[in-house]
Amino acid sequence: MARIAGVDIPRDKRIEVALTYIYGIGSTRAKTILTKAGVNPDIRVKDLEDNDVQKLRTATDSFTIEGDLRRQEGMALKRLQDIGCLRGRRHRMSLPVRGQRTRTNARTRRGARKTVAGKKK
Predict the structure, then answer these.
(1) 58 and 100: one domain?
(2) Domain range spanning residue 110?
């Protein structure tokens, strides 16, 4: 199993699809990495040679991915919460951040319904 950026990518998938298992790499960035490394996108991961894997590792080094990207996003959220802006407070309260209504929807963000006695329309 090939290991790129600390992630074991699946062996039986095409390399173009397998690269998307790395956090921060989508299909467009995977294609960019493959052209930069000069690797055929149709080849399976199990058929890659060692030098191809090394080329892919060097090509992914120029992007912010995996742990660094997660840390960067976490610090951005922490900054919003620390300065006390509306977006930061909404993140802290686990409510929708981008202005969506919460009276009837937002079940994913708010969790399961909690019944309140005497509440009617």
Answers:
(1) no
(2) 88-121
pLDDT single digits (tens) 5-30:
888 999 999 999 999 999 999 999 99
Q: How far is residue 22's CA from residue 4's CA, in Å, rounded to a whole number?
A: 8
Q: Summarize pLDDT for 27-45 with one digit per residue, the tens.
A: 999 999 999 999 999 999 9
The domain tally of the chain equals: 2
The C-alpha atoms of residue 13 and residue 4 are separated, in whole angstroms, by 15
- Whether 108 and 92 map to the same domain: the answer is yes
What is the Cα–Cα distance from 121 to 115, expressed in whole angstroms?
14
On whether the CB atoms of residues 34 and 15 are closer than 8 A, the answer is: yes
d(CA 39, CA 31): 10
User: What's the whole-model pTM score?
Assistant: 0.78
- Within 10 angstroms of residue 15's Cβ, the number of other Cβ atoms is 26
